[in-house]
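Supplementary Methods, section 5.1.

A reviewer requested that the exact input to the structure prediction be made available. We therefore reproduce it here, unchanged from the version used in the analyses.
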Amino acid sequence: MAIKEWEINREESYIVGDRASDIICGKNAGLKTVLVESGFEAGVLEELVSPDKVYANLEKFVFALNQKL
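The structure derived from this sequence is encoded token-by-token as follows.
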């Protein structure tokens, strides 16, 4: 698994995606999840998911992330 190979700190990492499958993958990996609503098929998810955060686009997520630094 990439988390072990790359020594990824799960508590400080996010998976960002625009599909339900991205959020499910992140949850399964124990990562914080972010849904961006501006990606592939924006506004249409293939199934109901509960991401940790939702942003209109990647730029807004990056801005919010930088505010925490």
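The beta strands are 14-17, 32-36, 53-55. These observations are discussed further in the main text.
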